[in-house]
């Protein structure tokens, strides 16, 4: 489902808002409930994985610009035609949380392991904030929800 340029701009504006309170979780299910959805990478995050959609079924898609530009490239953010789900081997994959569903879990002991279709594997610690809602991956890469 394409995300409009307007929705992308609205989400991007939240990147510069003051930080909110910690939105902690205590279980794998709590982490997945917060993670699932479309997340836009904030522009100050050079080197971070791109914006993504995390699905409840353990799959993910990278969001790419509908005009063919990488929305987080060094040339700046490009949302002229909105964002769409990438389809290439570096744009899709699966993920898992390193504990059983229902198990105790918090940002210091749970990580997301993302597997790309090309065989690459990335692991992330993950934390969340409220008001505004934000996600922090690997203690350095900020994301905001897309479409809220």
Protein described:
The protein contains 2 helices and 10 strands. It has one domain (5-145). The chain has 148 residues and is mostly beta strands.
Write a brief structural summary.
The chain is built from two helices and ten strands. The protein has helices spanning 5-14, 28-35; strands at 21-22, 37-41, 52-54, 59-65, 83-85, 92-97, 111-116, 121-130, 134-137, 141-145.
Helix content: 10-25%
Strand order of the largest sheet: 2-3-4-6-7-8-9-10
Number of E strands: 10
Using the alpha-carbon principal axes, give the shape. Answer: globular
Query: How many domain regions?
Result: 1
SSE succession: HEHEEEEEEEEE
Which percent range describes the beta-strand content? 25-35%
N-to-C CA distance: 15 Å
Whole-number mean pLDDT = 82
Q: What are the low-pLDDT stretches, counting only 5+ consecutive residues below 50?
A: none
Radius of gyration from CA coordinates? 15 Å
By DSSP (H or I, 4+ residues per run), the number of helices equals: 2
Structural class: mainly beta
Main sheet properties:
8 strands, antiparallel, barrel
Q: Keywords, please?
A:
eight-stranded antiparallel β-barrel, 2 helices, mainly beta, 148 residues, 12% helix, globular, 10 strands, single chain
Furnish the topology, listing elements before pairings.
Blueprint (H helix, E strand, L loop, with lengths): L4 H10 L6 E2 L5 H8 L1 E5 L10 E3 L4 E7 L17 E3 L6 E6 L13 E6 L4 E10 L3 E4 L3 E5 L3
Antiparallel strand pairs: 1-8, 2-3, 2-10, 3-4, 4-5, 4-6, 6-7, 7-8, 8-9, 9-10
